[in-house]
Specification:
The structure is a homotetramer. The first copy, chain A, is α/β, with parallel strands linked by helices. Chain A is 40% helix and 15% strand. The first copy, chain A, has 13 helices and 11 strands. In chain A, helix 8 links the parallel strand 5 and strand 6. At the A-B interface, helix 1, helix 3, helix 5 and helix 9 of A face helix 1, helix 3, helix 5 and helix 9 of B.
Chain lengths: 344, 344, 344, 344
């Protein structure tokens, strides 16, 4: 049995997603997102988010994030985010590239969450030097976070309130948004626009799809033109967009996305329990979604590896490892992982 | 029966490609192009091109072209291309975006082909003003061309010779390269590196795939680092790249790509004959690949549309239309099209 | 006696300009264009242009042009200009750099002038392909032109009318605007905003200053913020801007700029007469400002050089040379030049 | 008497600099830095720095810094600097603009100095994530610092050693380099290339010039081409560069730059003594160059302002002010300032 907990990026697509792709493969369809799948996205997401959503499908989360930020921040503007944010740490400067030299300002915060008071202070102290300094322009948060924790709706509302007081829109990187919805029990609406979020990157690739993401605009739909220009100009307007859109529609259908995320979260919770009961290993962060960060001895991790378990040693750390559970994680594999750990 | 000849971008994927995707969907695989499919690309393309090829898979032709040009041309450099080139006309400035303001210099030429003597003159007259003007840096050609014609190996060699005399590398946009290989009977090697081409965008999306392209480096493999940085930075490093690479491998297997292109070319040839025999309609360009450009009366085209035929009226022209034949074009549809035209 | 007719960029500053710099050098002054000279620019230019002008001083014409275009054209927009325009030929891509990959579309026209009907056609044929192609966004003309000719107010009005019909603003590169005003006898207003020009680069460096240019906004003054951001971000907000602004104010005072330009034009006219009377040499373009383009034999030019005359052989041509007359050209030098030519 | 201690950017030019400009104003000179002043820069700086220096003159410090960093750091690279660095805080993203989205990584350190051990740690922890993260590429330090302190040669050597161990070149922002040389008594060579600095922005505008800075390359002179392209492309290749270069030559002549800086430093030291002797006011940082940061009560600062003293309240702080002393600060003004403070 495969004991791979390295990343949800390594999972295959869910059967229902594959079926949707096959169905989309019958006959001709208009190119460049003029097909019947892409044209149904607005309606499908609007229904699920209980508001009028403007949807722009793309193939990766990095481009969604980067274009989202470029659409709300001028080249001389700054975006405030958590120090561990994907946009800051893992995109090789995609936001800076699409945003023509905009700046990301990292802020520290426990458990991967952007704390709203330090955010307020950071915005206030960086303004006021006119044309000489970057202009505070936007805030970006990640849900679920890079630490496997989840913002409650009220926490997002606090952040949005601070941002709003400074006139800044809030972007949400939802690469693992499904896991957060499944975890909180709040509705997609409550975790986004109702809390004050302006636009989000809706991720599905990690959660059962092959490559399917969407930039969702909750307000200021006129940003769409800028976004579509950047999408084309960066080579992200797939000629056969139907296959991306078909995945997204299938993910939403009958809440497949939430069922898949719930499964993944449950595996993570099970393993978190095992870690909690272990004498040596410890949880680095609360486990609220599908990622488990374990602090342990290097020797401990080595033994685990020797037992055939695959996971990610955190870059630059020999006492921290990440285990990710996905839609396709076999419950028996989780059980086996727990048993192996328990025996060490 | 569907009579859609609007674009090969509207075709579905070929069955063998779908199968390859399904096969790739079994179990976990390393993310970010470290999977077993992506790792086999160098070998597969090297074998088919009879030389050591460095392959970087991506999802669209636009990004392949744009990154290719950015990797051989500094921001203050210029790229010479045909006035109808996709990079000049249809990418909304992707090369300029990735190339941080590089310049494309369009050159006129009959039948969509870049003529080597005017190219030589254009390069010569634009140099020599030092830091004040753009520096001639690269040449880009399209094969098959935007006019549905095809360069013979010797024509490419002539262009490359001119470029080489000025120290410029030559890029080939091969969105429809398969159609050119099928048309000329020359080998992939003869039409590229043996003629002097340095790097190419190998297109498969129009020819039976969903979204699968590859940037091929024939020389200067150290460009790879720059290219991979731009791929990541532009959001084009798919986390689940295996699905792109699996398509590419399947396209190469047993020369599926050439069989599909041969079929498409044959349909185009059949229709070209029908046009040639028609009293009113005329061919705008020689038909050498899978595209047929027809010059006719607006009334003629209207009748054809009313008969249920779908094609593309050329932007800005009411007397010119494009008909594209694809890997999935049903031979009976082609016959019906010919018959309908013959009856008008 | 110096017989240097190579370029007005080689001239020293006029005595009145030097005096103004010295006067500005007394005591402290606010930095970053908050000084008393910079603060008077709006009033001084508004008076001279008979309308409310928003003035942003800078040190070079290239940055004025580049920022002007970047402020009216999105990265995916195109700017139409004459094929010989400085922005297209001589700025190494500054507009593309500041404009993040905008595109310049060169148009042919006799005597260095952008012809309005071909302009109209170019705009019409390049639109209509949506997100795939560059969006027609602006027009830029040069006054006096790169060929030493001058647009009449009505010619500018024709161009602006075409631009306006397509919703595009018109920029005027006025590196040698003084020479055009002096030549036409029209007012600055008539040659700019009254004819429909939206913004211009007002050049003074070639005409008696050391380094002093200004971007003038005739309408949409809210563009100022974008412009000032780009000025700072590109390192063009001089800490001691007072010296630039003092030059500009001195140039306007008592119409010094027009007196200097009139002198330069007169020298050019005198030499144009000499060329007109010569058996071999010929004028390449009508001489309407301070530049004279002479077509002659290579041997003829060599003799002239051997007689101690300095001028510019046109890059890539051995039968064409440019002679430029400046505010500091000694009338006796012009006479001597004419006499030398007459004797050959 | 003027009691302006707001900024050395508000000072006029020194008499010898004005004379040099006037001398440079006699007759014609080659344009675009091909003049006899610009051509002498390499020799003059090489002599003063005791090594072979490649000099590229420009008009502002911001462009020097930005182009310097862009020449040693790819768009996907990061530059490590102190959190208070001008490149990070005061240039509105010029390095990001010229560097096409490079990233500045700010590091905390006492007294405005980049501490070498935290630098080492920052570089080590940010590497190792391949194409996903920014690539550590360069280090930039400011001498004298933004806090008015000065690095000793050994401190610079420590930083350069860390940088070198990671293969990174070190840039020095020398907007107030003269004050540091005057303060340490070390030679320009000892404070730069002998300590391991690769290139620097040599500032003269704040120290007696109108607008004159130079980018100095101590090694890798082939970077010159990239730098000159960016200079042109950003509109910083002044047509009449002779006036900038003449200022630089005059600054070096007979060590005028050091005499002017010594005077400014002495005034600062005098005021620092006065603050040191004051019951309420305190020095925020050691005073080692020409800037004095004073921590005091808001009421105290108000009284000082009411007494006619001009200085800069630090942005975002009501208990901190900066006093800058320049080459033109009248010794009697300094005395008066000290006396006023002493009486409060």
């Amino acid at each position: 049995m495969e004991l791979n907990f390295r990343s949800d990026n390594e999972t295959p697509a869910a059967p229902a997603i594959m079926e949707a792709i096959e169905k989309a493969n019958r006959g001709a369809a208009h190119a460049y997102a003029e097909d019947n799948w892409s044209l149904r996205l607005n309606e499908a997401f609007s229904e699920r988010f209980e508001t009028d959503v403007c949807v722009i499908p793309m193939a990766t989360g990095t481009v969604c994030n980067a274009i989202a930020l470029a659409s709300i921040c001028p080249p001389w503007g700054s975006v405030y985010c958590h120090r561990s944010a994907h946009v800051y740490c893992d995109e090789s400067g995609a936001p800076e590239f699409f945003g023509n030299g905009l700046r990301l300002v990292p802020i520290d915060g426990a458990d991967g969450k952007l704390p709203h008071r330090p955010l307020d202070k950071a915005i206030r102290t960086s303004a006021g030097h006119g044309v000489h300094s970057y202009e505070p322009s936007a805030v970006s948060i990640t849900q679920s976070t890079e630490s496997g924790t989840v913002y409650q709706a009220s926490e997002i509302a606090n952040i949005c309130e601070v941002a709003k007081a400074h006139g800044l829109p809030v972007h949400l990187d939802g690469a693992r948004f499904a896991n957060a919805v499944a975890s909180t029990g709040s509705t997609p609406a409550e975790l986004t626009w109702r809390a004050g979020v302006s636009l989000m990157s809706f991720g599905a690739s990690k959660n059962g799809c092959i490559a399917a993401e969407a930039l969702l605009l909750f307000d200021n739909h006129e940003r769409r033109e800028h976004i579509e220009r950047l999408r084309k100009r960066s080579g992200h307007l797939l000629s056969k967009m139907r296959y991306v859109s078909a995945q997204l529609l299938a993910a939403l259908e009958d809440d497949l996305w939430l069922h898949l995320a719930t499964h993944a979260n449950r595996q993570a919770a099970k393993f978190a329990d095992a870690v909690g009961n272990h004498a040596g290993a410890e949880l680095e962060f609360p486990v609220e979604a599908n990622e488990v960060f374990v602090r342990w001895t290097p020797a401990g991790f080595t033994t685990l590896e020797e037992a055939g378990v695959e996971f990610l040693m955190w870059p630059g750390r020999d006492d921290l490892a990440r285990f990710v559970f996905g839609h396709s994680t076999d419950e028996r594999a989780t059980d086996k992982l727990c048993k192996i750990l328990g025996g060490l």
